[in-house]
């Protein structure tokens, strides 16, 4: 067995910050009232994190790149049939990769609809003035009655998968997202993800760009 640095620090921080932000969204959204101000802030945080992850999936650490872990249809079919599909035993397996993409997609849609939602009580999205009343109504309906349950379902599926790996496969997934390393039984050495000062500075700069972009989008509503 060889130890491989799979999750670089930026990817790990993204993961745990997203967990906290999504948890904050559900708590503040459920309680409502004055907490809706924080609901919006958590939404902006998720918006920023999604933008960060999309960029980091292109130029981030090796095992965090979409080209590295997103399977082709043929590769996914081979994996489901037990042929491995070239999966090295570290990082996201093909099914896990689809789960990541689904969660990013559903969260993106939830953020997008939130920006143009209006519950006519305590929440008005910053971009409501740019869309029609019908669009706002549909976005609000999706955001409150559909989207949040899709997110809950995917989160539940994610937790169930971790429990399955822990109890059945005897492989804990959470520790690797804390320290970054995974054990691989691959016959040949696997290249580690770059996780040094340079990559961390790059991630910090990219995060700042994403935050500035979100601030600009939100500020459009105040114009």
Question: Describe it for me?
Answer:
- By secondary structure, this protein is mainly α.
- It has one domain: Up-down Bundle (Fumarate Reductase Cytochrome B subunit).
- 64% of the residues lie in helices and 4% in strands.
- Helix 1 (9-31) runs antiparallel to helix 2, helix 2 crosses helix 8 and helix 5 runs antiparallel to helix 6 (133-167).
- The longest helix has 35 residues, at 133-167.
- It is globular, with a radius of gyration of 19 Å.
Strand percentage? under 5%
- Oligomeric nature of the chains: single chain
What's the alpha carbon Rg, rounded to whole Å? 19 Å
- The total of beta strands comes to 2
Number of helical elements: 8
Sketch the topology as an H/E string, one letter per element.
EHHHHHHHEH
Q: Which residue ranges are poorly predicted, with pLDDT under 50 across at least 5 consecutive positions?
A: none
What sort of overall outline do the alpha carbons produce when their principal axes are compared?
globular
**What is the average of the pLDDT values?**
92
Q: State the helical fraction.
A: 55-70%
Number of domains: 1
The chain-level structural class is: mainly alpha
Sheet of most strands = 2 strands, antiparallel
Note the gap between the termini. Answer: 58 Å
CATH-defined fold name: Fumarate Reductase Cytochrome B subunit
Strand order of the largest sheet: 1-2
What is the CATH domain class? Mainly Alpha
- What is the level-2 CATH architecture name? Up-down Bundle
């Amino acid at each position: 067995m060889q130890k491989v640095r799979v999750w670089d620090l930026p990817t790990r921080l993204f993961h745990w910050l997203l967990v906290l932000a999504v948890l904050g969204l559900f708590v503040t959204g459920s309680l409502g009232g004055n907490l809706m101000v924080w609901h919006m802030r958590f939404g902006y945080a998720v918006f920023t994190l999604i933008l960060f992850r999309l960029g980091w999936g292109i130029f981030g650490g090796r095992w965090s790149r979409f080209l590295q872990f997103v399977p082709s249809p043929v590769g996914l079919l081979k994996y489901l049939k037990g042929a491995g599909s070239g999966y090295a035993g570290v990082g996201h397996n093909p099914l896990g990769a689809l789960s990541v993409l689904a969660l990013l997609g559903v969260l993106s849609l939830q953020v997008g609809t939130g920006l143009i939602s209006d519950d006519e009580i305590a929440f008005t999205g910053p971009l409501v003035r740019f869309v029609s009343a019908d669009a706002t109504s549909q976005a609000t309906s999706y955001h409150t009655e559909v989207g949040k349950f899709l997110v809950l379902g995917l989160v539940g599926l994610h937790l169930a998968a971790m429990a399955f790996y822990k109890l059945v496969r005897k492989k804990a997934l959470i520790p690797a997202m804390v320290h970054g390393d995974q054990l691989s039984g691959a016959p040949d050495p696997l290249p580690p993800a770059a996780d040094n000062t340079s990559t961390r500075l790059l991630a910090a700069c990219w995060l700042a760009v994403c935050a500035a972009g979100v601030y600009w989008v939100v500020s459009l509503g105040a114009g």
